[in-house]
Design goal:
Blueprint (H helix, E strand, L loop, with lengths): L1 E2 L11 H20 L3 H19 L3 H6 L21 E9 L3 H9 L11 E8 L2 E7 L5 E12 L3 E6 L6 E10 L5 E10 L3 H10 L4 H16 L2 H20 L9
Antiparallel strand pairs: 1-2, 2-8, 3-4, 4-5, 5-6, 6-7, 7-8
Length: 256
Amino acid sequence: MQIIMHHKHATNITQTERWVSGFCGGMAAAIGLGRRDRAGLLLGVAGVELMRRGLTGHSYVYEALGIRTAPVGQGAEVIAVPYELGIRVDQSVVIGVPRTELFHLWRRIEDLPQFLEYVEAVREIDPQTSHWVVKAPAGRRVEWDAVIHNEIENELIAWRTLPGAGVDHAGSVHFKDAPGGGTELSVELQYNPPAGTLGAAVAAVLGMEPGMMIERDLQRLKRILENPGVAAEIRRDQDIDDASEMSFPASDAPAW
């Protein structure tokens, strides 16, 4: 788990908040410096922090809670998680299954709950859009709609959540031939957890932080798919899908 911290572009409060923070911080610092007791010292320190907040436009409290009041800017309508917010997760595993089989297995998204323990259900809305239900800490469930916005057959599937998601996130799955055979499957994810980094820390303590969940699910997927019987079943399913596509191409008009 990696906390995203792009301080060069980390403005996360509005211009009005910056002005108020700067003014109030200056007043508090001046009053605090005029006193000679512990309360004055604390007031002075708080004032200096407010001044820093106003000058930089960055709130560490907002960052910890995953809050942003500053505008996201151009391209916000196609961004699930602003690049200066959130948690970054990278996990990978080598699975002894050919890359084409693993790609087509992952692309049949409604079948994923059979292999991924923390995914309860996936419903395909259309070829690019789907609805997900995933287990969350404290016995809760998190739901979202996601859209596949980039796809390269046998190489890449990239997605982002749509507005209204229980957890805003974006990610990609990469498929590469492993040097020793099989497929290197890599998952990259950036998400903005409820309650920000504090929420992510609590989830990690409970063992339900998405990075941990993805790691366990990838290992579970590896154990299942490297079972010869399961691998053979995947090949049969893929042969059926290929035969069906050849007989009834998706581009063909309905017969009725």
